[in-house]
Amino acid sequence: MDPTARAAELDRADPLAGFRDRFVLADPELVYFDGNSLGRLPRAAAERLATVAGDEWGGELIRAWDHWLDLPVRVGELLGTKVLGARAGEVVVADSTTVNLYRLATAALDARPDRRTILLPRSEFPTDRYVLEGLAGARGLAIRWLDADPVEGLTAADVAAALDADVALAVLSHVNYRSAAIAPLAEITALVREAGGLVLWDLSHSAGVLNVDLAGAGADLAVGCTYKYLCGGPGAPAFLYVRGELQDELRPPIQGWFAQRDQFEMGPAFERRAGIGGWLVGTPGILGLTGVAVGVELVAEADVARIRAKAGELTAFAIEVADAWLAPLGVELGSPRPIERRGGHVSLRHPEARRRCADLIERGVIPDFRAPDSIRVGLSPLTTSFGDVARGLGVLRELLAG
Ligand SMILES: Cc1ncc(COP(=O)(O)O)c(C=O)c1O
Questions:
Q1: Average pLDDT, the chain
Q2: Taking every pair of C-alpha atoms in the chain, what is the biggest distance, in angstroms?
Q3: Is CB count within 10 Å lower at the N or C end of the chain?
Q4: Ligand 1, residues 95, 204, 209, 374: which to mutate, most atoms within 8 A of Cβ?
């Protein structure tokens, strides 16, 4: 069947189709393939931000801290239990992914003082590599680089081959930012644990689009962005997860007053509050957190299992269309073919990817370019239709066919 007709059929059968109207679609003609980088604005977020700014900041003023104070823990609780498969009290929303990565990696390395090696995929997102290289340099530790297949991604065997008793910490993305390949989270967690190390997962490209079963996997530590599939807004605060059993054992490297037991007693000595709140640092940005709260509520309402199912169908359809329309024009798939091996985006490789991305944006189709040769087609399930896929890839076909 022609992809355009098939897209219409798939959209009619899509149980999540109604969620699109819950977002601001300022230009209905725009094809947005970047919801995996900056999720669209939920209508409810625009409204709630106006209320928080107008009524709470404007009206309640400092009295609003009575209910703002625990917002990082409350939003973290919803995110952890409804979206990330964590247990209660294991997730908090604060700071940026980069800062959280630094904090949790530091705590993990402090907890394994006799070990000198950090495992890190060479394909890891830049900030993760830079942070860990900085930490390794400052502490005289070695980074052992993992070279995974650039399309198929990291396997448990890749990790097993590099593991030994000197590995303190492995830092890995659950979903690779370029290829969308999924790393086997539970299997790798078990392997590293058996060897006596800790694993810190970057969930930026899986939170809100995949079933992340942190508790089931017994994951130790994780961080991730909220402005992608969770639609928290530009620069919205990130999350961090610390497995309950590790929360007392690990020591946060920054002892800020938001982690203090009786914060407003202003006592002479730092006494860390119990639980995940003990991983907070300083005053949270309430407007940013408000955006995260709304995004997480929407994802929880839509149900992450249904979102994951649609991500599989959307990416499968994009691959089907790319095979039919774009492969004859020199486009190669840069993502794994089996549904269970890829996240919510599809990477399309072409020697002219940089120029074609710019052309696409000019024609009202917004993907992003990843050097050297990838067009990243993000298919955020709550805001992308199958019709978008057919339309956007149709424009790419026209461009490539000249
Ligand atoms: C996998 C991954 N980790 C970390 C980050 C960066 O996080 P931040 O700039 O919010 O600290 C990103 C941003 O796109 C990312 O994709």
A1: 97
A2: 72
A3: C
A4: 204
Q: What is the CB neighbour count within 10 angstroms for residue 396? A: 26
Q: How far is the CA of 97 from the centre of ligand 1 (A)?
A: 6
Q: Answer yes or no: pTM beyond 0.85.
A: yes
How far is it, in rounded angstroms, from Cα 185 to Cα 216? Answer: 10
- At 19, is the secondary structure helix, strand, or coil? helix
* Tokens of residue 242, six digits: 């610390």
CB atoms within 10 A of CB 51: 13
Is 376 among the catalytic positions? yes
Is residue 97 a contact partner of residue 103, using CB atoms and an 8 Å limit? no
Residue of 226, 192, 235, 199 whose CA lies nearest to 214:
199
Q: How confident is the model at residue 294 (pLDDT cuts 50, 70, 90)?
A: very high
- Residue environment code for 88-101, b if the CB has 16+ CB neighbours within 10 A, otherwise e: ebbbbbbbebbbbb
CA of 292 to the centre of ligand 1 (A): 16
Look at the chain and count its residues: 402
Interatomic CA distance for residues 244 and 214, integer angstroms: 11
Q: Looking at 219-303, list the stretches that DSSP marks H as alpha helix, in order from N- to C-terminal side.
A: 286-302
Q: Look at residues 95, 112, 132 and name the one whose alpha carbon lies nearest to residue 249.
A: 112
Residue 56 carries which DSSP code? I
pLDDT for residue 297: 98
Residue 387 to residues 215, 309, 394, Cα–Cα distance (Å): 36, 17, 10
Question: What are the residues facing 31 on neighbouring strands?
Answer: 365
| Dist CA 334 CA 337 (whole Å) | 9
Q: Which of 95, 169, 97 is nearest to 128 (CA)?
A: 97
